[in-house]
């Protein structure tokens, strides 16, 4: 199951504007993503502009994929923002992987601010042909 929209995203942005001391909240910010199937794999792409590849952490535990990344601010604590719409701080997203996906063979790449994950469909979940043998008028399925 994938959450397509985050109903609290706008509320987080407003809270950051009015209550955030340094532009970050305790609750991790959402990261936009696309997920689609192509052939025998799923592709999930996360928008992470301005994030260094070494600040991205991927973890799979009990069919839950967790993506964490951090985008720091400008580093100047004396800066007085006039407009602060670009989220900073820690970003986190969890995806629940179905039993039909091969979580042991996930491939990850990062290019132009986009983290792309390729998750193969498990061999046991791929369609297969079942042979039918006929003895007189009785059919048996051999799988």
UniProtKB/TrEMBL annotation:
Gene3D superfamilies: 2.60.40.790
CDD domains reported for this sequence: ACD_sHsps-like (cd06464)
InterPro entries cross-referenced by the UniProt entry: A-crystallin/Hsp20_dom, HSP20-like_chaperone, Small_HSP
Pfam families in alphabetical order: HSP20
Domain SHSP: from-to ranges: 24-135
PANTHER family recorded: HEAT-SHOCK PROTEIN 20 FAMILY MEMBER
Family: Belongs to the small heat shock protein (HSP20) family.
Protein name: Heat-shock protein Hsp20
């Amino acid at each position: 199951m994938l959450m397509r929209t985050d109903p609290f995203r706008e509320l987080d942005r407003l809270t950051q504007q009015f209550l955030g001391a340094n532009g970050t909240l305790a609750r991790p910010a959402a990261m936009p993503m696309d997920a689609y199937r192509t052939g025998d794999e799923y592709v999930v792409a996360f928008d992470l502009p301005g994030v260094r590849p070494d600040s991205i952490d991927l973890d799979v535990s009990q069919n839950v994929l967790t993506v964490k990344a951090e985008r720091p601010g400008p580093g100047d604590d004396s800066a007085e923002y006039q407009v602060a719409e670009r989220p900073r701080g820690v970003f986190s997203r969890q995806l629940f992987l179905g039993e039909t996906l091969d979580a042991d063979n996930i491939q990850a790449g990062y290019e132009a601010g986009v983290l792309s994950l390729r998750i193969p469909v498990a061999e046991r979940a791929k369609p297969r042909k079942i042979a039918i043998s006929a003895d007189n008028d009785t059919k048996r399925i051999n799988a």
